[in-house]
Amino acid sequence: MADWNLLGKLLESAQEHSTVVGKVWLTVLFIFRILVLGAAAEKVWGDEQSSFTCDTKQPGCQNVCYDTTFPISHIRFWVMQIIFVSTPTLIYLGHILHLVRMEEKEKQKQKELEDQQQVFCHKDKKPSVKDKQGHARLQGALLRTYVFNIIFKTLFEVAFIVAQYFLYGFELKAMYTCDRWPCPNMVNCYISRPTEKTIFILFMLAVNFKTELNFSLIQVTSSFSELKCQIFLPLKTLRPDEQNQPFGIYLPG
């Protein structure tokens, strides 16, 4: 199994700037997917190709039948799924780091300007990227990135579930038939531990449906509510004569 340390550290950094639901999502991702995949599932599929046998000795027949039955290994498929589902979160983390870096540069530039002119330049302060606890504020462009992060995570989850259904189905049979060349005729091929592998497949699907998609739906709902408040709340606080003016401009009467 690949080394998950780097991905784990990056997702841990993203967890510091996530909502409560987002933190639960990351915990579930690690415990029920990455750890199970690394500790148990790989051992179950460890003999996947070596134990795939067909009732023929024709050279090459067994290899092409295995390729037909399993276009991609379940383990590699799930690794790809975790990487794709984690990518939007890593992009969200990159946006946070970019905003923090830009804020630090702006503060440094302002300090140098004040030192050169030896005067205090009063400037309207932008809200800090981080709150008092050091967590990123979900507002403006960052909130939109967070919403897109959740949407794309959900889309990737659905896409991989559909892809898994069309590639293998949700249940493994003990015997598969194959008639690809160079097989001399229709041959029967057998896999090892089909019941145990089916249980793992159903477990991974249950994790997808019961946690990933449910948490994503809750996150999308709460994030859209926050986005709606940030857009419409300032408009409600304007005076009636201000509401008829272009946004952000006040013309005295």
UniProtKB/TrEMBL annotation:
Residues 43-76 form the Connexin N-terminal domain. Keywords: Cell junction, Cell membrane, Gap junction, Membrane, Transmembrane, Transmembrane helix. InterPro entries: Connexin (IPR000500), Connexin_CCC (IPR019570), Connexin_CS (IPR017990), Connexin_N (IPR013092), Connexin_N_sf (IPR038359). SMART domains: CNX, Connexin_CCC. The chain crosses the membrane at residues 20-41, 78-100, 146-168. It is found in: Cell junction, Gap junction; Cell membrane. It comes from the Eukaryota. Residues 156-216 form the Connexin cysteine-rich domain. GO terms for biological process: cell communication by electrical coupling; cell-cell signaling; slow-twitch skeletal muscle fiber contraction. It holds the Pfam family Connexin. The keyword Methyltransferase does not apply. One gap junction consists of a cluster of closely packed pairs of transmembrane channels, the connexons, through which materials of low MW diffuse from one cell to a neighboring cell. This is Gap junction protein. It comes from Neolamprologus brichardi (Fairy cichlid).
